[in-house]
Amino acid sequence: MHTGRLTISKHIYSLARTYLGRIIAALAITSLLVACNHESSQQNHLQTVQERGYLVVGTLMNSSSFHHRDDGPHGFEFELAAQLADELGVELRIIDEVHIEHLFTHLYEGRVDFLAAGLDVTAERRKHMRFTPFYHQVDQRLIYKQGVRKRPRDWSELEGQLMVVSGSSHEEYLRGVLEEYPDINWRTTPLYDADELLDKVINEDIDYTIADTNTLDVKRRAFPDLSVAFTVRSDVPLAWAFPASTDDSLYATAIEYIGRQHEQGEIIKLVDRYWGHVKQFNYVDTQLFIQAVSDTLPEYIELFQQYGVDIDWRLLAAVSYQESLWDPWARSPTGVRGMMMLTMPTARAMGVRSRLDPEQSIRGGARYLARMQQRLPARITEPDRTWFALAAYNVGLGHLNDAREITERQGGDPDYWVDVRQRLPLLRQKQYYKDTRFGFARGDEPVTYVGNIRRYYDTLRWLDEQGRIPYPGDTQVADSEQSNGSATSTDINQTDTASNH
């Protein structure tokens, strides 16, 4: 079974410690504000929201903050604001914009209660609005297209045009940079958002832009030629913005809410859901995957759709690519074979007579993955339920449950993937596996396995939504720019007999 390079990112957990340390200081300062304004302001902004029955939040329409999918609205900011609305017992109403300056106008003119749009906390913005304690941090990086220009190492080596969004914190920052580097060729635009400027870099309409890592990491799954020249700013805080008003009732409530979400670990879980799996980026692997979507997937796409009934066919296809690179003749040294890399016992249990037959293998793999989902406790909800099922497909349900027990003993939540994936690698260590039912396992492998599949799935879903997956009989030709990846091998390795499928 293929599991990808055996590395585990500690970013989410170190970030969690950073959050908690800094949030304590922020809450100490704001606790006085909460106490002082509770009685005097409780009947103002907060009461207005509760009496009318809905909370109005302004946000940006993009992959990070808010967007629509087939199954409804999604986005980090949307989910975080929706939880606050639930706590207040009101409906959430979203006003979404593509231009950040329009959002500021909504706030100043009172059309929204606050802004939740991944906004940087800057000195200039503090003159016109108030911010909650930060809930997330990003890096900001200078981006160019690989192979088109020589990589600049700092501002002095910048040759070509740089474009950023009007009214963004990037514009504010660049005005400061100009004091030292006045010859930089740059301009702002109100016509495009940050995501669209990355498209313009890919299309070679502009040479550079500045992007936040939460936007960049997602975008590179489909456009691996987006390259980082250097980091412009690190650990930039993101927070909700409120109007500069003397009424602190809703503002104080939001401060308490953000602090509580940090303390309870809810923000870390949300960060992991949206960006935890895209931090690791492999240029060659991404190029090869996009090439395979064009060259190989069309031959099997109807089978994935046929048997992806209870499971999104794109997820099933992502599992198969991780397992076999969509090679029906794939074989590991341990004897697992075929498109879905099934063991002989699992193949027999799933009614598969020939593991080398693509249809039988895909059918059997879909059934087995569905069985893993069904055997998980009902209290585990999506998307964690899917990530647990994938881990069980890789390492076996027994070893997964061992890791969940260790998680609970250590004070983590055994029903959240972000907590359990931290403990799965402990199954390699005798001091931990000696007290488990199923013993030793290479628990780092399912962590990498699930992360790889999540990245492939995200890319497939995006390509499908953009109409860039060629279907049988479709004359569409894949974008040549996404089809010129190097033909080198990936870092995917074979697993041992710890695999249970």
What is the number of beta strands? 11
Cα-atom Rg, whole angstroms? 24 Å
- End-to-end Cα distance: 9 Å
CATH topology of the largest domain: Lysozyme
Q: Could you describe the largest sheet, including whether it forms a barrel?
A: 7 strands, mixed
* Domain module tally: 3
Number of helices: 20
Mean pLDDT: 85
CATH class of the largest domain: Mainly Alpha
- Taken from the alpha-carbon principal axes, the silhouette is globular
Helix content: 40-55%
Proportion of β residues? 5-15%
Structural class: alpha/beta
Examine the secondary-structure arrangement and name the CATH architecture of the largest domain: Orthogonal Bundle
Provide the low-confidence segments as ranges.
Answer: 1-17, 27-42, 475-500
Report on the architecture of this protein.
The protein is α/β, with parallel strands linked by helices. Helix content is 47%, strand content 14%. It has three domains: 166 residues, D-Maltodextrin-Binding Protein, domain 2; 98 residues, Periplasmic binding protein-like II (D-Maltodextrin-Binding Protein, domain 2, 3-Layer(aba) Sandwich); 200 residues, Orthogonal Bundle (Lysozyme), CATH 1.10.530.10. Strands 1, 4, 5, 6, 7, 10 and 11 form a seven-stranded mixed β-sheet that branches. Strand 8, helix 6 and strand 9 form a beta-alpha-beta unit. Helix 1 crosses helix 10 and helix 16 crosses helix 20. The longest helix is centred in the first third of the chain and has 31 residues. The N terminus and C terminus are likely disordered.
